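Can you give me the bound-state structure? Components:
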Amino acid sequence: MTFELSHYNAALLFALCASTVFGITQRTTPRDMFRYGSYCFVVFAVGVIVASWLMWAIKH
Amino acid sequence: MANPQNTAAVSQRSAKTEAAAAGSMGTIAPIAGWLVPGLGHFIQRRWIRGLLLMLAVFVMFFAGLGMQGKVYQFNTGDLLDILGFIGDLGAGLLYFIARAMDLGGGNIHRAVADYGTKYIVVAGLLNVIAAVDAHHIAIGKKP
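Here's the bound-state model for the whole set.
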């Protein structure tokens, strides 16, 4: 079985799973868990875009 | 009428029993959580947290295998290979099953396979974080 994902989708799936674990383990109440998990997900997703533009800028 | 001395003795005994139970759970929960992702939370009746942790680790591990990522085996060579093995080992039984079934051979011809390798390592590391969380719940450090 092989799994085809684009680079960005792979990064998003990574962000989703890592954010879920971070949210649950780093906060105590369900509300805080959800908020922190969402925050981590956004940071991951935006960070990937920023990093890719930085790499593009370095190349050009 | 209850004797105050008897009441104090009973409450002292029950506190000792609870402490002993928490002590054994403090050992069992992280080991169970390491072996099977989420199990450390399940045995403490944290059903939703356990299920979400299990899903996150399983999805990462199997997506990594699906992307033809590499499962490291014990080695004493390159430092990154050793660290990769330690990370993979964090996935517990998933790692041993993958090794037993000879999965995770890697594929250097696919760029996404390298992502897969990282997925598998991170699945193990996330599982270790989840197991530590189960320990914290067991010792009462976290609700």
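A couple of observations. DSSP finds two helices and no strands in chain A. Chain A touches chain B at residues 1-5, 7, 10, 13-14, 16-18, 20-22, 24-25, 28-29 (CB under 8 Å).
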